[in-house]
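Changelog excerpt

This revision adds worked examples to the README so contributors can see how folded entries look when concatenated. The first example is reproduced verbatim below.
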Amino acid sequence: SSSSVEGQPGSFFGEPAMAASPRSLPHLHLHCYPRSIPNIGLTSFRRDLFRGGRVCGFQSGFPCHHLLPDGQEDRSAPSPQKISALCSILGHRKWNSSVEDALREFGIGLYPALVANVLWLLPDAKQCLRFYVWALQQEGCRHNFRAKEAVFRFWGHEKLCRAFLLLLDDMQRRQSGVMSSSGLTILIKGYGWAGMVDKAVEAVLQYESSGFHLASYHLNCLLSVMIKEKNYEYFDSVFEEMKRRGTCLDAVTYSLQVLSLCHQGRIDEAREVQSAMSKQGIPLNSSQYNMLLDGLCKSGRPDDAIQLLHEMEERGCQTNVISYNTVINGLCNFRRWNEAFGLLHEMKSKDHAPNVRTFTTLMHGLCIAKEFAQAKNLLTSMADDGYSPNTVTYNVLIQGLCDDDLVEDACQILDKMVAAGVSRDTGTYKPFLTYWGRRKDVDKALEVLQEIKAFSVPCKTCYWIVLRGFCEQRRITEAEQIFEEMLTAGWVPNEKDFRAFCGCLLLAGKLEKLYKFEEDMMKRGYNLPGKRG
């Protein structure tokens, strides 16, 4: 029987999430211990008693898993050097075999407290989940509650996130693969979030080799993961293997094939697949046509997209707002504004009410064409027609104005945004930051950076713009402060960052400070580019 998860959303086991930013420093200790175990769809869990942070008494079939507070689970706090060294390896590159090789050559055994600290500092969702999965497979490494919370801060919006993490733990304890149909579905989706296609395929093959039957739903999930990761060769081979085995190909499978072909620009083949679907009596819906419309627009064939849009109703398929938005976006990308607005009027005449995305797409097109007066009028007309511009709508217009050095106009739009009560994000202020960086006014850029920090964690580019400004003006003290803030926020410096700061120290003749900085960075585990001259 399923049991509901008590507490507020946002925490791994239903407890209130830690009130800190996603990149909070790892030394912050969580004082929330689990009160209930969610139903993960594999077996029934009963509510258990927790004593001192320990989980007691899982039902038979799932051995007891002890989740201890950090102080009891690992009494030695990891050194900043170990944490920085791991962050340096994970922060510089995409996850591939070279990252795994570098982690194996790290030469220091992984343990729960070290892994949890690193996970809390990783700013990328996929990289965080991938390191979590990889670390769990290393000898002697088991994840604690804080490690799960670190992953959950990124992936808590996924309904099966808890189930995936619990399933990984269970598989590690049993040293065996997944043993149920629903468990395999969870694994495929979880590995898909991490972009680990090979692991998803491995889980499918292991499940089949254990004598279980693969359902078409499992294979469709696997195909979805491959499309998401743009692994189209793998997709084609799995699809052909399904046909060779005589697996029942349903409407979902064919739709995924159409989507894969459209992403590859193989539009004519996608249309052939749709024709084959019609011949087999598989009804085509607006979603499948919308995939084809998107493919035609992205392949530089907006005229064919317009033709198909008008043919849809003739073929008995109703167009919708997504259909029109797709073609409008394609026309805007080719700077065919008049036709895009023509489709907007056509939408209204057919009772397809445009949405905020429709107007935002047109706004973006007008900004590319530098038709800012018309873009502002469009913003006003949205409110008059009863549509509320959202954060993205305002951000698009602010970005366009700042790119054209119309910063005063952009400030007026920002004031309207604040007055309307629309939430702001980093993308709202980043155009201003870029503008002042371009103008070499680092003090103004710093003011914008402080504004961002008041409500969010600035992105790495924001820090880089200010750091570069201070370095160019040889303002070493301020540059040091920004560099340290960058590290504290969890952003791993790259070669460009190091070279800028080292060059600043060198040009200012601060050789002793330069040597001390390099020594400090090496102690933290960062590999500095080049050699000292």
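The second example, added in the same revision:
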Amino acid sequence: SRVPATIHVHATVQITRIAQEFRRPALLVLSNTGAHSSTRPTAMSKKKLVNNPEQAVEDALEGLVAAQPGLQLLAGHRVVLRADAHTLATEGKVTLLSGGGSGHEPAHAGYVGRGMLTAAVAGAVFASPPPASILEALKAIQSPAGTLMIVKNYTGDRLNFGIALERAKSQGMKVSMVIVGEDCALPNTGKAAGRRGLCGTILVHKIAGAMAERKCSLDEITAAAEDIANSIGTMSVCLSPCSVPGGKPSFNLKEDEMALGIGIHGEAGAEGAEKLQPADVVVERMLKRISSEEPGYQYFKCTPGMEVALVVNNLGGTSNLELSIMANGAIRYLVDRMQMKVTRVYMGSLMTSLEMAGVSLTLLKIKEKWTEYLDFPTAAVGWPNTSVGLHGDRVRVDKPPRPCKASETGKECGQAKEATTVVGLAMKRCVEKVCEVLIANEGKLNDLDRGSGDADCGSTLKAGADAIQQRISTVNWDNPQEALLSIADYVENYMGGTSGALYSLFLMASASALSGSDTSEPLAWSRALQEGMQAIAKYGGAKVGDRTMLDALHPAVKILTQELPNCTRDQVLEILKKAVQAAEVGVTDTTEMQAGAGRACNVHPGQLDHPDPGAHAVALWLGAVYEALKQ
């Protein structure tokens, strides 16, 4: 069903009949020997959490129904029904059936529920369901008001649903069918295969389902479904392929490549592989294709002021962070560049292609009453609920950020302040050197963090260092206590994460320790370091030996507190050097420690065969302070 090709009807029917004679779901396997065959990789199968690849669809449907009290399986078939489907006939409501190959979850079974589909029939992964199962589904939801089948435009689906439709009619059932094909990637060449049915199909499910609940007639719902199908356009992009359970990746893409115009059955992009581009550039290209006026691509005519709904669909392996970035880019482009009214936005994993990393964008031209039906409540678990606005509706509007309440925290002064005292000049130089060193070691710290955390230790510290560098001329260096509090603010607001919180606490506690002290005395700074270290232990919950930054900071502070009280001025740098060396030894020691705090404590000890990145960062900035003072 995934191959856009013309297949001889007689051959397909014969294959289906043979499969039915063996009492197993029909699976039509076509060999794709076209342009994409040479790109198929020889890599091993991608890992999947399944019990048996051949039983994966049945297991998945059973799991969905077991988790959802409003759903029920049809015995002997891959069909999911509304548990109350039998009541719809007595209520005089039209029933709705859709389906297709599996691997697109939550489609199609996830859209079964009050306000959407009455039933969904599933085939094997990326394969059309057999006519026998489709016919049994029609019988199970038969209603005097009639049944509408919503079918995506793939050869196998058209044939198998068509066979079931003709058999149902011959048995006296009232059934109609609407084909959805809204893909904008391929030109209109007049070929029989036509445009592929993609994520826009769920909009037909939603509006038709609401109309059915409102007791609209079969003719009314069918006409509306056809109108919706002609009012949508979809374009997709992917960053990686997918693989069917037990199979290999369907095509190859390099780490720095993407493909535009892909479908939902693992086929490669219509426009071929190309270099990955920024999200906003990709969004612009996708929306330009949907709204194209180029001959052969004139599918979705856009005019300024047009009201549209936008669907931002995760093809399976895309993070929610990326999905929101794509949604923002699409909304901004449609509103600012195309002057359109985007009144409804739906985001999520809605029509997937297994684990494919990618996104599809769908536009729907809003017509009379369609928003009412889109907003109509549904019990279908796959439909993305949108939040309700201030006026109790679901209309998307542009909202400026709410201003923060006035606060001294994070307040920045733009006036430049030059350091003039010996302590101020020295402190400024130390901080500059620390920032330089942390920025230069971003990659190394990330590499160390990769095995025990989320591989962002270096990036997090660099973000704080960048913020300090940008504001370094606004710090009052001649007042060390005030300077530390300013840096604490920058770290807290711009470094982020646990590191930002810990270093902010460290700096604030150190600032408090300097209150009333002679900051030209090295011992005052030793006490400040000690107070900062204790604050980290108090609020962070870690202790020495837990494989954290404390394991580098503690031995350094111990050297300073023991040796500085009895030293001369000439010995200060030498003692600081010993403290740095002690910190470096502490870093090495963390290699043999079992993690007792932080994300590393959730990692198997056998994987912690490297120094702790937080401890290594401490040794780096202590070394930077030593180098700055030595100069």
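Reviewer comment on example two: Confidence is low (pLDDT under 50) at residues 1-43, 407-413. The CA atoms of residues 436 and 465 lie 8 Å apart.
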